[in-house]
Amino acid sequence: METSIVLSKCSVHNGTFGIRIERKGGNWFRTWAFKINEERAKREGYDKTSATGSFAASPDYPGCPYCGEKRSFIRCNCGKMSCWKEGQKSGVCHWCEKKIENIVTRESFDFTGGEF
User: Fold this and answer.
1) Which strands form 2-10's sheet, in the order they lie side by side?
2) Is 22 exposed, middle or buried (0-12, 13-18, 19+ CB in 10 A)?
3) What does 83-112 look like in DSSP terms, one character per residue?
């Protein structure tokens, strides 16, 4: 079984967190999430992870450790992931600080780790 840790930011609290993803049958599943500071994430190499595909939540995925969101994730034009509150239509990417309009969440995309 292939596993990896990818970085995300909370769109509500701006906290950085790691998401453990596990490949099953060609798709990725989010299985666990944990708070992590950016210095440790960089030391562990999580800022270098990139992945492509579907990123569905497993049934026991706990969600964002800051706001609890389990379902909605976005990939900004900067290529990095953030959790996003369901129904929220605009906001600011906490990775690149650019305003994001007309948000459509999905579970299949390409993203990069999040170099700091």
Assistant:
1) 73-75, 81-83, 2-10, 16-24, 27-35, 50-57, 108-112
2) middle
3) E--TT---EE-TTT--EE-S----SEEEEE
pTM value is 0.82
Q: How far is CA 54 from the centre of its chain?
A: 12
Number of domains comprising the chain? 1
Q: Which domain holds residue 73?
A: 2-112
Q: Given this model, what pLDDT does residue 116 score?
A: 43
Residue 92: what pLDDT? 83
- The model's pLDDT over 13-69, given as tens digits with 9 standing for 90+, comes to 999 999 999 998 888 899 999 999 999 999 999 988 877 777 888 999 999 999 999
Distances (CA, A) of 98 to 12, 54, 114: 15, 25, 15
